[in-house]
Design brief:
The chain is an alpha/beta fold. The protein contains 11 helices and 12 strands. The protein has a single domain, classed as NADP-dependent oxidoreductase domain (TIM Barrel). It has an 8-stranded parallel β-sheet. A two-stranded antiparallel sheet has the order 1-2. The structure holds NADPH dihydro-nicotinamide-adenine-dinucleotide phosphate.
């Protein structure tokens, strides 16, 4: 009897330990659920895809417990994501347990181009549907990079058609500001289920976050490390860096790393972080943030780094009427 009780206690602890590492899901306003942590797959503007680096990263990520992969037509690696997903599905992962997000590029903003563009992404991904399709930017452009002034409200109507056809389970927007989302809602159109924008310690976007909470829109945070790594920080980037003594103290307290502390902070704000890595150990490390919680004074310190500093201002689109961000003085 005593042994049975002990065995029961041990099993309960083990179950709890496994549960505490499981990524929770958030409810979307269209009824679907979205895993609250995603792998990023953008290689950067100056890196050409080499062949299977993203395929490897996505495979490692799925092995490590990621179920949500963020990609885009513009990243030119949808085919690699598709190969990794196909491989994992052959190995027994269920397609319906994976959540694949991709994005409509700026060159396909005309309403009747949205569905064909999504079909092209689906072909690249070798999938019959994506879980989430986002308008990548509110700004349209032609292939020669001149501006296309198509109203993003028209693009949104095309997104709704893609959802109605079952090609995307959920639809949302990326890099839209509050006013631009309000404009979609004022047309009486369905609300975006997700907004994806830059969020990191230097750009925490508290008012956009509370707006989204009020409207039931889930926020995904891209470039979650911001300027944390000296190799990525511009000269004018505010602190902190990864070797910041106060952040190291917090990391040591929980036996975690500074990147993990920043990801945990975003998770606790209710934001879905999208860390990108091609490195197996970092991919595994980044998702291991569901077994501890930050204290209030630690959250206060992390909040104090918010300086409204943007790492991806996309100034080349500054003169487009739908440029979404605050303009430099
Ligand atoms: P991130 O903030 O994710 O930083 C990525 C960099 O951090 C890489 O150099 C990576 O190196 C490094 N890194 C990752 N984990 C660690 C770690 N634990 N320790 C040390 N270094 C680490 O930047 P991204 O700009 O890539 O943003 C993430 C994702 O968000 C993108 O990949 C994309 O999916 C999405 N995104 C969306 C945008 C949009 O317009 N909607 C715009 C920008 C990004 P390495 O790979 O060598 O391991």
């Amino acid at each position: 009897m005593k042994e049975t009780v002990l065995l029961f206690v041990a099993c309960a602890v083990l179950t709890h330990a496994a549960d505490s590492q499981t990524v929770p899901k958030l409810k979307l306003l269209d009824g679907h659920e979205i895993p609250a942590f995603a792998l990023g797959t953008w290689l950067g503007n100056n890196t050409k895809p080499a062949g299977h680096e993203v395929e490897d990263a996505v495979s490692w990520a799925i092995d490590a417990g990621y179920r949500h992969i963020d990609t885009a037509f513009a990243y030119r690696i949808e085919d690699q994501v598709g190969r990794a997903v196909a491989k994992k599905v052959t190995e027994g992962v269920r397609r319906e347990d994976l959540f694949i997000t991709t994005k409509l590029w700026n060159e396909n903003h005309a309403r009747d181009q949205v569905v064909p563009a999504l079909r092209e992404s689906l072909k690249n991904l070798n999938l019959s549907y994506v879980d989430l399709y986002l308008i990548h930017w509110p700004v349209g452009q032609f292939s020669n990079r001149t501006f296309d002034y198509t109203d993003y409200v028209e693009t949104w109507r095309g997104m709704i058609e893609a959802k109605q056809l079952g090609l995307a389970r959920s639809i949302g927007v990326s890099n839209f500001n509050q006013r631009q989302i309000d404009r979609l809602l004022e047309q009486g159109l369905q609300a975006p289920a997700v907004l994806q924008v830059e969020i990191n310690l230097n750009l925490q976007q508290p008012s956009l976050l509370s707006y989204c909470k009020e409207k039931g829109i889930v926020l995904m945070g891209y470039t979650p490390f911001g300027s944390l790594f000296p190799s990525k920080a511009r000269a004018d980037a505010p602190p902190p860096r990864v070797d910041d003594p106060k952040l190291l103290d917090i990391a040591n307290k929980y036996n975690k790393t500074v990147p993990q502390i920043t990801l945990r902070y975003l998770v606790e704000l209710g934001i879905i972080p999208i860390p990108k890595s091609l490195t197996k150990t970092r991919i595994e490390q980044n998702i291991a943030v569901f077994d501890f919680s930050l204290a209030q004074d630690e959250r206060d310190l992390l909040r104090s780094y918010d300086k409204g500093y943007r790492t991806i201002p996309q100034l080349k689109w500054l003169d487009h009427p739908y440029y979404p961000f605050e303009k430099p003085e």
